[in-house]
Amino acid sequence: MAEKKNEKKEDAFDVEKALERLEEINSELGKSGTSLKTSLELYKEGVQLAEQCKIHLEGVEKEIKILSEE
Question: Is residue 34 helix, strand or coil?
Answer without folding.
Answer: coil
